[in-house]
Amino acid sequence: MAHPRTLGALREEVAAGRFPRSDSVKDEIRRNLIAALRSGRPLFPGIVGYDDTVVPQVVNALLSRHNFILLGLRGQAKTRLLRSLTSLLDPEIPVVAGCELHDDPLRPLCADCRRRVAEEGGDLAIDWLPREARYVEKLATPDVTIADLIGDVDPIKAARAGRELGDELTMHYGLLPRANRGIFAVNELPDLASKVQVGLFNILQEGDVQIKGYPVRLALDVLLVFSANPEDYTARGKIITPLKDRIGSEIRTHYPRTRHEAMAITAQEAWTDRDAGLPVSVPTFVREVVEQLAFHARGDQHVDRRSGVSQRLPITTLENVVSNAERRALLHGEAEIVPRVGDIYAALPAVTGKIELEYEGELKGAETVARELVRQAIATVFDGVALTIDTQAIVDWFNGGGELSLSDTTSADALLELAAEVPGLLDAAEAIGVAPSATSAARAAAVDFLLEGLCALKRISRSEEGRMSGSGGRRPVAAGASFDSLADFDDDDLPPKGRKKYYN
Description:
The chain is of the alpha/beta class. The chain has 23 helices and 14 strands.
């Protein structure tokens, strides 16, 4: 059915019961939320890990018709959750055509719309506003003013219309009045100056605002939602106590609580489907190590826990890991892009910028801390599978003088050729679920995981250049050999096993 396009047609539809009168925005959201709960449909698609914690609290706030604030560290999907509230609005609502406040034609608020209704009557033009246009968002910064949020005198408008400055029709509306009949979100609330926060008192408590210089109270219809980071309370500003008192609900967000939830978020957000014409297959153990890296970073003593470690860390890290695998595949003309655990070391630039370090961490250096976090993550994930795999023959080979030198560009075929020299290595790769019929890239990724896992558990050693050898890097020499000094030590005196190196 076509929407009515004039006030007269709308009145007829309402009188006939074919179109309901508009609810307030909080009642509208409450009505649609109740319908969603009864139908059992997902409330906030794309929000992972909050089903039993944050979402129920948001639902309670909306059912209570509360304005609310999401309080949590960076990278906890606060803004995404606020933006998803638009799904609880009606698809479209009628508004007076050309009105800055999106006035309800049946209950006009601003002076200009009241004048137009009186002059035009049933011929007043009506537009239909979609739900997406009913969400207004402002990133709080210290330079935001009352005029930006609420409004101010507009002398240019007064001069053009030949009106007195005190005339209501000369008001300039800020962002909050322009969000009338919708949702107004303020991100990073503590960054607002205290005097600007005071300007929100009336709208939160009495539901109206007053623009400077006008004896007019605008009874706005708006849901106010906020986000804030607890770190900001002392670092850059604070939410003043009277404002906190007027916000209906304070809801705490959190990071993913399980590796499974974190992997689901990263899989949803990371760009891993590339356009190079090659299929991308990311092994599960690579995804697990990337997520475990973030978990370790959030608990590491060298990382500032007050700042938090955003979920953007595993997302950007995985993208870099896939890019390194893509580079390797293109260099060697391989038919498939399969990331390896060792590629995570090549993705350190995506890690170091996401962690704030404590004093001791600064002394060690961001890259050193990041490498240690990667090693810990590999050890944690590998330890979960090592119990079912016999790796003693592999360790004995390295302790007996074996050595492999690999780089992040070593091709899959070259890596497998090296692995064939290590007793039990290919069999161990099969034991973690990679069949002999799998592609060479997939088998190479499994071999790399085994080697990196043994290094992380310190059963064999790994240099930053990628040289893998016996634990501690010490290898036995021929019987009866003796060295008077380090200068007498020559690599040629070592057993020939494992000297072959590939830097393809």
